[in-house]
Amino acid sequence: MKGPSQLRILIADDHEVVRRGLTSLLSSRPGWIVCAEAVTGRDAIAKAEEHRPDIAVMDISMPEMNGLEATRKIRKILPRTEVLVLSVHYSDQLVREIVDAGARGYILKSDTHRDLLNAVEAVAHRQSFFTSGAAQIVLQGFRNRDSAPKSSASIHRTLSAREREIVQLLAEGKSSKEVAVSLGISVKTAETHRSNIMRKLEMHSVSELVRYAVKNHMIEP
């Protein structure tokens, strides 16, 4: 990791006005450079591979692939790239998902102006930075996690990365054919994944899948 005086940052958010604001704020720090911008999770992965940033500032809710899935893939491909997640939501479950995905920090979008620079600086030094309230959950080490009854969060973790991608695409209203084209797989494979997902989640309709995706912050309501 380079020092904060020469920091390369990737911004991933599907709203142009947000990207502009983040770029302006981050570029105000001498030596901090926004080396790339992305509008979807897949775009973020491609830009990260191309530019190899020190930090990726990642919106959690993006089309095609959400920030959590993109974080998992970026951390696997580029383990030296740290990720700071932005979200308009806060929940214990979301904190767990963010930490599981490999992100080093998490702040609410409403706190961005106050916390973003400090959060990026902390993450640049491989220190964690979590929005108020989330830190306590992390410090507790999720002590009750293993003893807790089976929840939607634990079920969510049983889905493969590809299945989570497909859940998001289906919840966004894409057909099996559109899912197949988007992921570069056959329609038959897409339909098989869809059947397996419905079986694992014990669901019988797309409307149930949409509610599941919203609850797990895979799409915005």
Beta-strand proportion: 5-15%
Number of strands: 6
Basic shape: globular
Helix content, binned percent: 40-55%
The pLDDT mean sits at 85
What string gives the helices and strands in order?
EHEHEHEHEHEHHHHHH
Could you tell me the radius of gyration in angstroms?
Answer: 17 Å
- Uncertain segments are 146-151
Written account of the structure:
This protein is an alpha/beta fold. The chain contains 11 helices and 6 strands. The chain has a 6-stranded parallel beta sheet with strand order 2-1-3-4-5-6, with helices on both faces. α8 packs across α11. It starts with 6 loop residues before the first strand and ends in a 6-residue tail after the last helix. The relative contact order is 0.11. About 3% of the residues have low confidence.
Q: Helices, strands, pairings?
A:
Layout: E1 7-12, H1 16-27, E2 32-38, H2 41-51, E3 55-59, H3 67-77, E4 82-87, H4 92-101, E5 105-108, H5 112-124, E6 129-130, H6 134-139, H7 152-158, H8 161-171, H9 176-183, H10 187-201, H11 206-215
Parallel strand pairs: 1-2, 1-3, 3-4, 4-5, 5-6
Helix pairs in contact: 2-3, 3-4, 8-11, 9-10
Give a quick rundown of the structure.
The chain has helices at residues 16-27, 41-51, 67-77, 92-101, 112-124, 134-139, 152-158, 161-171, 176-183, 187-201, 206-215; strands at 7-12, 32-38, 55-59, 82-87, 105-108, 129-130.
